[in-house]
Amino acid sequence: MDVRFLAQWHEFLPREGGHVIAVAGSGGKTSLLRQCAAVLRAADVPVVVTTTTRTEPLDWPGLELCAWEQVAGDGAAAPFLFVRGGAHPADKWPGISPAQVDSLGRLLPRHVALVEADGAAKLPVKLHRDDEPVWPGRTSLALLVMGLGALGRPVAATLHRHGRLPAPWLPDGPGATWTWDLLWQLLASPGGYRSRVPEGVPAALALTQLGRCGDSRGLFDFVARAMQEARLPLVLLAELEGEAAGVRTVCSARPPDSARRREGRT
Known about the structure:
Number of helices: 7
Shape: globular
Strand content: 15-25%
Order of helices and strands: EEHEEEHEEHEEEHEHEHEEH
CATH architecture: 3-Layer(aba) Sandwich
Number of domains: 1
Helix content: 10-25%
Structural class: alpha/beta
Distance between the termini: 25 Å
Strand order of the largest sheet: 1-14-13-12-10-2-8-3-6-5
């Protein structure tokens, strides 16, 4: 499959107020949201960050913390803020409901919303419950995150909710390790990451922990398969930690069939 890299990895991110970018999956969701926020803020786009579950406290430069009641009541509208919900343990910031996220388009019409829609207990891959991810109704872009740090490592030690939720494609036995084929099942099988995206919502795949992947051939075979079979037209390749941190985005080098047909008529 012919692919190319975007000149800037973030070209596809919406900049207009009212958009909701939601991330789900595992292996670096919060770090990817931070990258998205930095790009938007550098372009002077107001950003509101929140979660529909809960998150670790964020120490992002310039990020202001406010309660939902402030936004809903007096219209707190700092250009870069995190909106939290009700009471949770002190080591977590609580989220707000999907309906409240949807209200942000009215309350903060100039802001792009960045939303973490599930949690993964800091593991690179996860199994979703039936009620996850918790997508806002106004989600305009879904980013599915998978951690390549799982490759070659034991399934039982790297999969959130291993043994607690059914996954008939997983091999039996304590010695099973992650392969590209197992990652594909996690992405594309019924109940997998791709099937969790609401119908009609554009989605992109983010493969994180790139520095832990030494199999470039397997990586690009997986990318091509994701773009073709899972209908994920954009795949982000990301290392979000350390001196080598960075993101690149792969897309098809060929125009869609509809565009090629139009070109053939002119």
